[in-house]
Amino acid sequence: MKVQKNSGIIVTFDSNKLRQSLLKSGAGKKTVESVLQNIEHELYDGIPTKKIYKLASQLLKKVAASHAARYNLRNALLLLGPAGFFFEKFIARLYEKEGYKTLINLNLKGHCVSHEVDIVAQKELRNTMIECKFHNSSTNNSDVKTPMYILSRFNDLKVNRHKLFKENEKIDRCCIATNNRFTSDALTFALCSGLDLLSWDYPFNDNLKIKIDENALYPVTCLTTLSAVEKEKLLILDVILASELLQHSEKLNDIGISHNRQKNILKEASELCKN
The domain 85-214 is classified under which CATH number: 3.40.1350.10, 3.10.450.50, 3.90.70.10, 1.10.630.10? Predict the structure, then answer.
């Protein structure tokens, strides 16, 4: 059976790959096999993977909304746009969970020109400049031009000292974070140039998906019990993570959600955040 990926490429349907992604949602083996059987009955030659993904999400939600929420993680990252400002805040939250202090949206003077810097993260007195490359489509990857451009900015900034967490600090390292993937040339260039990269699937043992799952740092956009408009309103109120919604549930009142719906939303958020 052939399926069509979002990029338009035709590939052979891999039931085991789908099984593994369903298991990572937190669903039990019996549920996963039931979902797989239902999906296999709906397959036809050339079916878009987007349709398979949507059907799987609907079936998981019937069992538990939190399973569908985890399964929807990559799409949830796309909803941190369209400009990517909320994605920058999300990445800062990830670094803070790992013990970093962070500053966002800085304007720093380099040796030649001034630069807008998305995030500076400090740990053990070392400062890392983090540039976020946000994509609105899952088919768009960051190519070699991205690390080339950011390396030139890093080289201009690291010469000077800056007012960061205190006066007269240097920028020691540079990292590029994206919600999608890097091309092979981008990975090769970054490795050769000493740049750190963070993407959906890189580094292999410590990528964006692993960091999110291990720390239960799911964006509020994962929640299936919220509409797209409600998710955006919460992001504007600086509720970036589902765990933050649990800590500040009054924000649901602020955006006009009824008491009955609030219980369902908070239940899903609570289940989602359980490691």
Answer: 3.40.1350.10
